[in-house]
Amino acid sequence: MKRETPSAVMFDDLRRFGGITNRDAAWLLLNSKPTNEGKSLRDRVDSRTFLSRTIVHSEPGAIHPEQFRAFDVSTQNIIARMAANRSGSADVRADIARHYRTEAAQAMADALRAWDLDDRLYLNAVAFIAATDLPEGDRAVLYLMLFIVVGCLGDPQQAVAYTEHFANGKMGYGMRTPDTVIGERASAPAPSAEAVRLGLIRLVDQATKPPVHLLDATEEGTVIGSFAAGDNIISDVDLDVSRRHLRIWSDGSGRWFAQGLDSTNGTTLISGADRTERFVERPRSLREEGPGDPPVELHPGDMLRLGANTTFLAVRVTA
User: Fold this and answer.
1) Strand order across the 267-270 sheet
2) Is 317 helix (H, G, I), strand (E, B) or coil?
3) What's the predicted TM-score (pTM) here?
4) Contact 108, 151 (CB under 8 A)
5) With bands split at pLDDT 50, 70 and 90, how would you rate the model's confidence at 192?
6) How far apart are CA 79 and CA 141, in angstroms?
7) Closest CA to 124 of 179, 200, 175, 182
8) Could you identify which of 97, 150, 238, 282 might form a hypothetical disulfide with 310, taking C-beta atoms 3.0 to 4.6 angstroms apart as the criterion?
9) Which has the higher per-residue pLDDT, 264 or 176?
10) What separation, in Å, do the N-terminal and C-terminal C-alpha atoms of the chain show?
11) 265, 280 Cβ separation under 8 angstroms
């Protein structure tokens, strides 16, 4: 079964929702910089075959970023075109914001996942934008910009970085982790453990949510966070989890450790042996001056609660 590319999802959505033809969308997105063949990609979009094969259905990373116009410019131009095409709507900006927060975002996430790209990173950015107190019109710009950049480049990390840079520079807003209220917890030492390979599985409403995330058994370890990037990361988290929230690693002898990465809302470990709780890292609101919390040993059966609601169960994993 042929996988639908993020680019194809973008063009299809701009056509169906925005009323913008594939040719016009390509003209708005591409610049006039010539390629090695002497003509720009934009100069060739009148060829339907070229437009479909090379532009609309391009695979992630196939078109060099330098072939696109500045995304802040193209996003504003596309919104203006959408507004003109949807002039019968009572609140065009609200319609755009809702669409690119919901069904369009999910369609793009599905395409990213089909290409083994980080759909959670993309959806986390959507959730962060939704949580801002920006006017709905500004949120509409950010949702659409995120959607367009990831559709054009096929790179969620670049899309998030570009959108955040624009939000910081033009709107004075950064994707900051919101504070949640977490009470003091009792402290108890964790029991010793034999050498094991460890994984994490998320718990949602007291039920497990596959897959099991195998932890990297090196000193570098695995990083959990809403905008964590790299090979050994877990980004399936809620909104109040920091971009780089927690690191888990092995010392090589089979012992595993967790340590906070200066997160906003901290992490609590719930012992699988006796259900007692202790901080891995206190929420920033409860910290005192001085060195941060030391690493805490992690065992199979323990649970980690990041922020208020993101909970993972540590499980023994067999080869």
Assistant:
1) 207-214, 198-204, 310-316, 303-306, 267-270, 277-281
2) coil
3) 0.74
4) yes
5) very low
6) 8
7) 175
8) 238
9) 264
10) 30
11) no
**Sheet bearing 246-250, strands edge to edge:** 233-234, 222-224, 246-250, 256-260, 296-298
List, for residues 88-128, the tens digit of each pLDDT value: 666 888 999 999 999 999 999 999 999 999 999 999 999 88
For residues 43 and 76, the answer to whether their CB atoms sit within 8 Å is no
Site of tokens 């610049």: 31
Residues 6+ apart with CB under 8 A from 319: 197
Average pLDDT over every residue of 195-213? 84
Pairing of strands 296-298, 256-260: antiparallel
Gap between the Cα atoms of 15 and 212, Å rounded? 38
Q: How far apart are CA 90 and CA 308, in angstroms?
A: 38
Beta bridge partners of 303: 270, 313
Amino acid at 216: D
- Let me know: does 315 contact 196? Beta carbons within 8 Å: no
Q: What are phi and psi of 260, to 5 degrees?
A: -70, 155
CB 304 within 8 A of CB 267: yes
Q: Look up residue 307 and give its amino acid.
A: G
**Cα 123 from Cα 129, distance rounded (Å):** 10
